[in-house]
Amino acid sequence: MPSTRSKRRKSSKKAKHTQKNKSKSAPAPFSKSPNTTTKSSGKRLGGLFENLVAVQARLRAPGGCPWDREQTHATLRTYLIEEAYEVLDAIEQGNPNHLAEELGDLLLQVLFHADLALEAGAFNISDVITGIHDKLVRRHPHVFGDVKADTPEEVLKNWAQLKAIEKLAESPKQDSLENPFPSVLDAVPRNIPALLEAYQIARRAAQVGFDWERVEGIFEKLEEEAAELRAALASSRRRAVEEEVGDLLFSVVNLARFLGLDPEVTLKQSNLKFKERFQEMEREAFRLGKDLSKLSKQELEFLWDAAKTRARAQDLQGSRS
């Protein structure tokens, strides 16, 4: 079934979730609900999966769904991204039934691409499952082998080393002296959003030991980058300013990573917090019969502080209940 139809169906449901969880910027804890146990819990997992694969194949087959039949890997890219973000939204809302539904939609995207590949004679869903199964076993020698790794950091370092070895073995021998072997950063695609790219680059570099030993070092780096930005601003060189702003952003991403935070998630939370407080300013201005765009800087600041105070009071009340 076309994802666009499901999006329309979900929109009203999402509005209810958003309203119920208004003013919450952090992911809500999952609560057990009576509906958490699925109707299919008594069925074999293999049978369930085979039925789902068969449904998707039927939609693509002659006489199936016209929308499904015209899709390609390229046309499905947008839906794959949308479904991934809807999973993140479900996690933030803290509703297990909502999360289960969104994970199903994301799984459908995997099956869809595998079905397209099967039709093209490239690979099938069995290859996908076998590939990730073997990779998990291969990349966890501390679980399935004799390697010792007692901390998450050791696990990540081993993972990066194993990945580098695998990529080196897979790559054809190169005559060029410029790139005689693969880089640990080669796996970071250039077509992903810049924030995610920065996070992946910094994370992969840290996995092989290129990282700060203490958080104070990153704060020092932030101060250094801020000073360089001020110097670039004083020189009125736009290209230099652009470069230094980028360096400052990269350092902030590194700070989030070092603290064990995902910068994309933290920024999304801050975006939501700013949006809710700004909309509270708009409501208050409307209540007072004023046009927000015509208020002075001092009046705007007053409304912002009031909205922030109300939001904090609501959060405090919510934490007590």
Class derived from helix and strand content: mainly alpha
- Total helical segments: 13
- Find the CATH topology of the largest domain: Helix Hairpins
Order of helices and strands: HHHHHHHHHHHHH
The proportion of residues in beta strands is under 5%
Extended strand count: 0
The helix content, as a percent range, equals: 55-70%
Instruction: Assign the CATH class of the largest domain.
Output: Mainly Alpha
Cα-atom radius of gyration? 25 Å
Short précis:
This protein is mainly alpha-helical. The chain has helices at residues 3-20, 45-60, 66-69, 77-93, 96-119, 125-139, 141-144, 152-170, 194-207, 215-235, 238-258, 263-287, 297-320.
Secondary structure layout:
Elements: H1 3-20, H2 45-60, H3 66-69, H4 77-93, H5 96-119, H6 125-139, H7 141-144, H8 152-170, H9 194-207, H10 215-235, H11 238-258, H12 263-287, H13 297-320
Helix pairs in contact: 2-5, 4-5, 9-11, 10-11, 12-13
What does this structure look like?
The protein is mainly alpha-helical. The protein folds into 3 domains: 3-16 and 46-134, Helix Hairpins; 194-258, Helix Hairpins, CATH 1.10.287.1080; 263-320, no CATH class. It is built from 13 helices and no strands. The protein has helices spanning 3-20, 45-60, 66-69, 77-93, 96-119, 125-139, 141-144, 152-170, 194-207, 215-235, 238-258, 263-287, 297-320. Helix 9 (194-207) crosses helix 11 and helix 12 crosses helix 13. Residues 3-25 have low confidence and may be disordered.
